[in-house]
């Protein structure tokens, strides 16, 4: 670990000012500290924001839920409003990391965590995300865990967050505070695909601070759930995952929100699957047909072609769980 300056922000204004000067925000520290130990990240200044008043969960006037950026993952998962209104969020959080980490990690930190690509975390390996222009060792290396959707010639690393998949499915928005005031960004636009600039991972501007994630109201009743497929049951990142939310009325699917994790460079909204479901009567045949288009744009690598079929099966299984079988 390299030397750095530590400071604690007294309020959000001080945090934004410190961020403008290049300080890196830290709250739970479950990601940044590891990256500093591995010398992947070498910030000159670390700004502790754990004392800021961003730790509340509230219900919006429209019936949505707003989760403060500093709410602990375990607290968000256990919150009655979250669990009753959007169980897909609670399930995604409970399938993330270990209980000890969930007790420390925050919602804002979770969606900002960096990839678990082994080449990114190995400072001796070529990685355009860590060192722009150095190349991508994963393209020709062992890439079993890498992306089949949203990759580029510069990067094929997946985003590791589970709850980010649920946020993407539910079309959440990220609330930000910066030098120019407050603004909101749709969740599906907040995390960026690598393209030709894999080092740009999010839509944050210099000095901006995440204050909350807001999930809008959806038609009721809303059935939802999260399925995570991984190599082992405990403390492992997803090979594939599916966040599904369905509103059924009059015997047909009135609204469908579906996203996948473990397969994309960002949480992947499955718009084609959603469109295939709308207006149709729930049935085993429908779930199979909708899931069949989940991987239509996939570009598998040498060692992860299995993810194409696994993604379709994961989506189909979760559609059956949430929507029922007939």
TrEMBL record:
Fetch the InterPro entries from UniProt: CO_DH_flav_C, CO_DH_flav_C_dom_sf, Diverse_Substr_Oxidored, FAD-bd_PCMH, FAD-bd_PCMH-like_sf, FAD-bd_PCMH_sub1, FAD-bd_PCMH_sub2, Mopterin_DH_FAD-bd
User: Lineage of the native species?
Assistant: Bacteria, Bacillati, Actinomycetota, Actinomycetes, Pseudonocardiales
EC assignment: the record states 1.17.1.4
Know the name of this protein? Answer: Xanthine dehydrogenase YagS FAD-binding subunit
Q: For this UniProt record, give its keywords in alphabetical order, as a comma-separated list.
A: Oxidoreductase
Q: Which domain of life is it from?
A: Bacteria
Decide whether keyword Nucleotide-binding is in the record. Answer: no
What is the species listed in this Swiss-Prot or TrEMBL entry?
A: Actinophytocola algeriensis
Q: Does the keyword Oxidoreductase apply?
A: yes
Q: Name one GO molecular function term.
A: xanthine dehydrogenase activity
Q: Which residues form the FAD-binding PCMH-type domain?
A: 1-220
Cross-referenced Pfam families, in alphabetical order? CO_deh_flav_C, FAD_binding_5
């Amino acid at each position: 670990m390299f030397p750095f300056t530590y400071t604690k922000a007294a309020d959000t204004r001080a945090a934004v000012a410190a961020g403008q000067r290049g300080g890196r925000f830290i709250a739970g520290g479950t990601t940044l500290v590891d990256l500093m130990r591995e010398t992947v990240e070498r910030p000159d200044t670390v700004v502790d924001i754990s004392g800021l008043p961003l730790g509340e969960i509230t219900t919006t006037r429209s019936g949505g839920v707003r989760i403060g950026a500093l709410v602990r993952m375990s607290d968000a998962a256990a919150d009655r409003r979250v669990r009753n209104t959007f169980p897909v969020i609670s399930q995604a959080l409970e399938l993330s990391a270990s209980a000890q980490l969930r007790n420390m990690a925050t919602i804002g930190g979770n969606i900002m965590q960096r990839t678990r690509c082994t080449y990114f975390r190995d400072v001796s390996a070529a990685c355009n995300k860590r060192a722009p222009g150095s190349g991508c060792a994963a393209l020709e290396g062992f890439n079993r865990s890498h992306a089949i959707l949203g990759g580029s010639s510069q990067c094929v690393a997946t985003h590791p967050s589970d709850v980010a998949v649920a946020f993407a499915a539910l079309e959440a928005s990220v609330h930000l505070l910066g030098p120019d005031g407050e603004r909101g960004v749709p969740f599906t636009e907040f995390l960026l695909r690598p393209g030709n600039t894999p080092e740009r991972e999010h839509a944050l501007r210099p000095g901006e601070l995440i204050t909350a994630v807001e999930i809008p109201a959806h038609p009721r009743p809303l059935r939802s759930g999260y399925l995570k497929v991984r190599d082992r049951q405990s403390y492992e990142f997803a090979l594939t995952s599916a966040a599904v939310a369905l509103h059924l009325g009059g015997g047909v699917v009135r609204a469908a929100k579906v996203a996948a994790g473990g397969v994309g460079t960002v949480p992947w909204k499955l718009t084609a699957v959603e469109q295939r479901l709308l207006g149709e009567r729930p049935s085993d045949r429908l779930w199979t047909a909708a899931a069949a288009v989940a991987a239509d744009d996939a570009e598998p690598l040498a060692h992860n072609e299995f993810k194409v079929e696994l993604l379709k099966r994961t989506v189909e299984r979760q559609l059956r769980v949430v929507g029922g079988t007939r």
